[in-house]
Amino acid sequence: MISKLDRLQTSVTSFRVAASKSPFYRESPSPAKPRWVEVLVDYDRQEVEDQKLYTYALSQNLQVQPGDILSVPFGRQQLGAIAIRLLSEPPADLPPERIKSVQEVISAGFFPPSYWQLLNQVATYYHTPLMRVIRMALPPGLLGKSQRRIRLTNSIPTAAQVFLNPPAQQLLNVLTSSKTGDYSWRYLKKQVRQAQRGLQDLLKRQWVESYLEPPKPPRPKRQQVVTLVKFTVPEPEELTPRQQEILRVLGRQGGEVLMTELLQQAQTSSGLIKTLEQKQWVVIEEQEQLRTDRHPMPDRDTPKPLTPAQTEALQAIQGRSGYHPFLLHGITGSGKTEVYLQAIAPILEQGQSILVLVPEIGLTPQLTDRFRARFGAKIRVYHSALSDGERYDTWRQMLQGTPQIVIGTRSAVFAPLPHLGLIILDEEHDTSFKQSQPAPTYHARQVAQWRAQLENCPLILGSATPSMETWFSSGLEKTSTRLSLPERVENRPLPPIAIVDLRRELKQGNRSIFSRSLQDHLRRLGDLQQQGILFIPRRGHSTFVSCRSCGHVLECPHCDVSLSYHYTHEGATERLRCHYCNFSQLQPSHCPECQSPYLKHFGTGTQRVTQELAKLFPELRVIRFDSDTTRTKNAHRTLLTRFVQGEADLLVGTQMLTKGLDIPGVTLVGVVAADGLLHQGDYRAGEEAVQILTQVAGRAGRGDDPGQVIIQTYSPDHRAIQAVQQNAYATFMEQELQEREAYHYPPYSSLVLFRFSGLDLMEVQTAADRVAEVLESRAGSYQVLGPAPARVMRVSDAYRWQILLKFPPGAEIDLPSLGELRSLCSARVSLHLDIDPLNFG
Ligand code: ADP
Ligand code: ZN
Ligand code: ZN
């Protein structure tokens, strides 16, 4: 059990009650001033680390409150720490003179009390040390660590160098080759073999010294600003013509300009401006510049008159006070975003802030533009692609508590907004809200729910294709309210969806990856000057095996999931495995259903599709939109803008395309082979397939021209395909729930996944076996499945195995400590825990 951690967390939680009312109002010093503080040190070890509290003394002039971020001496280093609790007496077992002092307060008031409780809840539920959760929530670099560095001392007698041992000589060479004669010890160790031996030699001779450089937490960026302070016309003898010219430039700019800009615009030097300051015409001041996301403002828009369904949804949301979760289930293009915007407006007006979570950055530009158009500068964007400085500034800005709307991805659920009045998760079904590695393996929806509870505010989960969890809670479980927008606005029809049977295409001699029907539509795109999207459902290496003649898919007889093909090496026997229970069989030479010899491993990539397009339709202009082409910072925005502006006829890409794109010109949506989604080899495959296909189909016909969707597949009769074609999401989910119940999958159980990986297959397998044995012997309330290889067994040379635990619904997740389990594994095998896993790859 992770009992030590639990105990600490209890104590940390109970301290909360005693904390100040709000971190933004510092308590006035009481008569008996506490002179000691217990802190949590950012002590960098694996998660087995004991989360001990350490006591430090406070010097007279230092004001510290719980939740402040401090810098403290720890061993030989200077580390970041968080103040947990103030003491008015030192601990009895520690002589006061041995207690070290807090060095400085890096940042005050970082943790509002409810925020602190949230972090504790995350740590407990996801079985992660609190410090690790804190580190993830904070902007990077804030909890700095001091660095050991080596530098040359003043005098080194050249002649004596020959007596040095070889590593010492090499160290000396490296150091003298640098301008400053100063390097980090880490760097030197990488440059020189046996560097430790060399260093000892050099230290003994006192030719170098070793020192600790204190951490450098991010600092606010400051810039010089020049402000005009005298507004009279200068007497001719008072200023030179050049000086007068500078004042005119300054005046034209509104009287206040950044020094750098003024220098450029007035073609002058800073000396001249300083003279003007001496003459008291201007002042030069340092001002803080926030490095927050700056974007051109889109045109202002105003609230739209709502449709009856939108009105009903909005009234339901506004009709309740305090914490309550809502599912806003609106088909694609039904106007969910307009409901969000109108739900936000009054809350913002009351002086509260709003948190909006979205799945992916690719989607944010369009959405943020719509929010900016409505709310102007009150919008902040917060996500992990910001630079460290930008993140730090956005944090500090949020802490000031001005009412605002923060839009961000998964990690923004930890944005430290005080006075939170509403949380919205758009596309709440999206699996990118779940972190599968590293710990804590949190789901932003779960964390958002806790947060809304702590803040006592509403939570809106919006989607055209709600997750099973939310479907269940707003249906059978009745813990949230389901609101529906069943029609597109302005009576736009949903596009018709045609299913193309690829088995028949093969039979009729078409070996291309495009059916004849899809080819016809692609050809017409160019003629009609319309735009299309080609979607390639592919996730990593797809590995299931199916029959190209009858569409039969080989499945595990025990787990109701498809079997995976694992490529190990050239010429290996072709075995198929279940990566839940490890059932395996040889790949048959003929289809067990129809005896056809055409059994096929699945997988078609974007590249192959674009090549084929170039061959068949050289006149179509194509943009590839996948993880390869969208790697750079603004690539998403740039590619989409180019497409929206009509620079291409066709957007070809993977999963990323499915997320909320609203491009009016798109009439055609083609799915190259849906089968990659249907047989993912895990229990969520069906749910995810319907979600993705419905979402991608919803990209067609959002403008004035009607759309057409073509889904190609070898399994046209699959339940998921049928549900998508008939727009029968609710029916599908109800059937799916029954299947989940029959096989005890979530929400009728809770899952915990142990992931093992390492370069040596035997070591990984042995570790997994040992851990499974211990888990079996404990006989908790769980069932142990596996060990079995992960769906993609080998990733960048590492072999991956896993064990799945199934708990009864609502059961307490009690597990042996990770530290204990890790001690059963070879040091070269890594073991990670995933609570409520969604990704079994
Ligand atoms: P969803 O988020 O459900 O996919 P959107 O909010 O993007 O739907 O709405 C689709 C389109 O309809 C958008 O262009 C939006 O501006 C427009 N729209 C939404 N609500 C209304 C309304 N009440 N009246 C007119 N147009 C609307
Ligand atoms: Zn067959
Ligand atoms: Zn199985």
Short description:
By secondary structure, the chain is an alpha/beta fold. A hairpin with a 2-residue loop joins strand 3 (69-74) and strand 4 (77-87). The radius of gyration is 31 Å and the shape is globular.
Detailed description of the structure:
There is one protein chain. The protein has 841 residues and is an alpha/beta fold. The strands form eight sheets. Strands 14-15-13-16-17-12-18 form a seven-stranded parallel beta sheet, sandwiched between helices. A six-stranded parallel beta sheet has the order 19-29-28-20-27-26, with helices on both faces. The radius of gyration is 31 Å and the shape is globular. The chain has 25 helices and 33 strands. The chain has seven domains: 2-137, PriA, 3(prime) DNA-binding domain (GIY-YIG endonuclease), CATH 3.40.1440.60; 147-213; 222-288; 308-489, P-loop containing nucleotide triphosphate hydrolases (Rossmann fold, 3-Layer(aba) Sandwich); 497-541 and 606-738, Rossmann fold, CATH 3.40.50; 544-602, no CATH class; 750-835, Ribosomal protein S10 (Alpha-Beta Plaits, 2-Layer Sandwich), CATH 3.30.70. The site of adenosine-5'-diphosphate has 15 residues, from helix 11.
